Amino acid sequence: MGMQSWISAGVVGKSLLAIAVVLASPAGFTSDVQEGTAATAVPIIDTHAHVFLGFRGGRPPTPAEVLHAMDRFNVRRTILLPPPHSAVRRGGDRFGREELESWVRGNPDRFAFVAGGESLNPMIHSVAPDDVTPADVQRLQQEAASIAASGAVGFGELTAEHLSFRQGHPYESTHADHPLLIVLADIAAQNAMTIDLHMEAVPRDMEIPARFRGGANPQRLQENMARFERLLAHNREARIVWAHAGWDNTGERTVALMRSLLERHPNLYMSVKHDRLGSRRTAPFMPDGALRPEWIELLRAFPDRFVVGSDNFFSQGTGRLAQARRFVDALPASVARRIANENAREIYRLGARPR
User: Where are the alpha helices (DSSP H) in the chain?
Assistant: First the structure.
């Protein structure tokens, strides 16, 4: 989730980007120059976007306004989902299953939705992992069944480690192998649905980064990778999308870490987001605007495991959508269509190919 970026919507030209790749890439990446970069005609399926950030006031955008924004960046389809609420929300900022379902009914070829951030996430965070009862399991199963029956393509946005960015913005943390997440993994597998998980990478116990000190955040963060791997290993039929690759707030979601997890867990997928507020050290772009060589290598090694997930809040502008377009336009042509739209159709069972 996080604070909305207001980055310029400029897109780097194809020829300039090819030059940047030549200058920035070692000999092993010369083939990227030969095959070129993807043209802006490559359509995007955005797998992670939000309609409304209610606590900032204003009004939700209309479907027509969102479709207009999508068309500007050649986004052919958007999967909408609620942020991971810390408590069950009611009213205008909710935009959960019922609201998103109505958007999809009106525009089934342009929208799909994921739900549970407004309902399942509060259930999971309201009970300690060691205190889960059969009644808690039954409540989660009932809500998950309602979401599956509604036509949602996944469960989310859920979180296991979500930092607070400002006053009034909650800090949320629980075990990545929370018993209710384990139950949900089985439900997701049974229904061929995804789990969209927001989780900062904490590969060891560590001090919280300086810019997040104070407020609702703790002074130290607890290691969470081992529990995340237990969730992934529990049911290999459960497709788990680890959101926000490229937007890292601990400085620990490195290419090496992502590669090691992808090698060990065939049911792990990642959605890519770029935002100036994340760690520059682990961002996909170099200061000159070219994709980092190690990112290119990772994407080419796992071309079927990445999708676009802008995390755009349409009520706050289109800055992150512009960055999603920039990312796709920077991709080598050999993987651009897979990452921009083909993987999303397969992972989320979306059906028709975008035109």
Answer: 14-24, 30-35, 63-72, 97-106, 120-125, 134-149, 179-190, 225-234, 255-264, 293-301, 319-330, 333-337, 343-347
